[in-house]
């Protein structure tokens, strides 16, 4: 089975106890996909996991485009990483240089923490500005990905500084930083990070092969997705589902919200890892390791809705979707249709023998005069990509034979906002470490 080549950054679920010192958001849980413990089972063909998405009436822009190495952004990312490290170590040195002067040391730690918080606020403005400019056709899809990847990289660097400051505070006698403040800052920085953005950095920097990204935006939201050699990865941010109210939400309610929003995920969560929740400030992160992948869902404390999502799904656990087939010139072309931005499998076989065929596949989108080469189907006759948002045409030419199939994406299995499962749905969480609020576990 062949997919558009890609290196993927994936997030591993950890228990809240391990998350006590570092609550394990998207920004600091990146590791190789090979380390994930997925149950490799083929799902029912008609079972689709729900996803957070942008509603059709609020959709402003939607595209799927190939991205590859770009020297300019690559140099910018390298400079950003180097600058972040320099700032972090300069802060550490400045604080440690005061020696045993606890008062001055404490003031410096709090001052550096204030600066990190101010940068987090600036990143929020930068992200919204990038979305607004893209919607107004002032940025291309590549330029939007570059900007979101840059914001992702800076957020990760800021979280490194947050961790360093937390450790310096721990080492300072008779001084502590409110653990809730540190955890709330981490949750806020999580807003700007994700596995697709991290991968975009690798592609643009030449550390991963070119691949196709789906980009969908609303006035204050963005959906990004792509397919790797063996996984489908997706991240979503919906600013309209946030009101930043810090009161009225408990870990149990956060779990119930996610259980009700993702019933398939909740029912199939791994028995050993279950689900856990960490939170502080105005949001909670619920992490679920299930038999078809991983889910990271962020619940807003005010609206009690999931406003951000990251999903990682191994391709052999992805449902095939709704098939559309065309047979011509001895070629049997089947497209397993899925929702806009969803994982799309294209299968090519001999019509007589059903043997797989290795051939080039192109895709063209409605209203476009151009077709894009996806690549070859490979020895199993299959290739994966992400679905366009509008009708599209798949074309295969093999020698003098050709087959063309025009079809459309399926409806998105969207979440229901402000929906939660019955309160007793969290009782099965006893299979893993009980959920703990970051504010009570840190430090």
From TrEMBL:
Domain Fibronectin-III type-like: 323-404
DUF7094 domain ranges (all copies): 213-318
Region feature (Disordered): 407-443
One matching Pfam family: DUF7096
InterPro entries: DUF7094 (IPR055520), DUF7096 (IPR055522), Fn3_arc (IPR056397)
Domain spans labelled DUF7096: 2-208
Annotated protein name in UniProt: Uncharacterized protein
Organism: Haloferax marinisediminis
Phylogenetic lineage: Archaea, Methanobacteriati, Methanobacteriota, Stenosarchaea group, Halobacteria
